[in-house]
Amino acid sequence: MPKERQSQFLDPQAPYRGGHLLHNLTLFSRTCRALGIEVSPETVQEAAQALQYVHLGRKEDVFNTLQALMISRRRHRPLFRKAFRYFWRAHDQRWTRLDLRSLGEERPEKRLQMLPAGEEPDQPDETPESPRQEQHLALLPLPSEQEVLRRKDFAEMSGEELEMARRLLGGLDFKRFLRRTRRLRPGRGRRLDVRRLLRQSLRYLGEPLQIPTRLPKLKPRRLVLLCDISGSMESYTRLLLHFMHVLQSAGGPPVESFVFATRLSRITLSLRRKSVDRALREVGHQVRDWGGGTRIGEALRTFNFAFSRRLLGQGAVVLLISDGWDRGRPEVLSREADRLARSCHRFIWLNPLLGRPQYQPLTRGAQALLPHVHDFLPVHNLDSLQKLAQTLSRLSLR
Which of 122, 259, 339, 366 has CB 3.0 to 4.6 Å from 324, enough for a Cys bridge? Predict the structure, then answer.
């Protein structure tokens, strides 16, 4: 490419391109990195060089060029598509100074809202005479802001911070929790595989030149979630349900989900929806005791008699998410918690109040429940959820 063509391409005053293309590519790469797409500075330089051979009046060609250079994982394609669409349409000096007509598309007069993934705007187009609506940017915070957000209690977050926390939940790494079974498979183990030994020795006139062995087969360990949705958990409920949806759709261990206040409700099928908003909306229609009183003992008894034999038979891990406030009888809670602890591989109590320095488990429900749990962990911010993922990964193969 001649130098004249390159200088004209990057010239801010070039009417054909609208100017400031390299500046806008840098801003667009920051947007991609904020959404979790790994875009290096070298990639931005390669994209700027590649666009020299692309007609910028064709938006599809620009999109395909940037996608080919900036995307290395298939799961990042939907995020990149939305980021490209909204970034190059939003007419805001904080975002870009690029003339959008250089991409072959007239800029719409309406102001687009940045919606969560999986949603599309369903409202009629805004006319120029209509009142100006507030924009909601669907972006993650900067790394420094993420560090603050990860340590902030869910109950103290604003609406925008809760939305950011919901998006950060998708980055948690919950691996498949494996367990050893009694069935064996070929491998370098301690058990001799006699059948394979005799079969292989026939090739060498009965001489056992190799000693084949077997290993136990590995299968994923089931994860059972019991979440308290009573009135005392109201400030944590929605984000914790979003966390349950992430666990269920992450492709990790098989997950069974339940919620309870005064009675137990199974919501596994509802949380299998791909859209988290649709899943939570369906859960809201299904569960009738939101924000009511708490009867943990009765909920555990219902689970023990109706579901435990089917779900806990193969070394499942049970996560009880509750603050321990209980209006039932303590002896019922103690008896049912003991029965549940003896039926599962690990019984973990996640308490959002445990993250507060002044908290002590002094309520009757906490005193009845605490002696029967294997682990007592906080679940009040994003850091605590990340530590939970590490704790669960250490349970593998035990």
Answer: 366
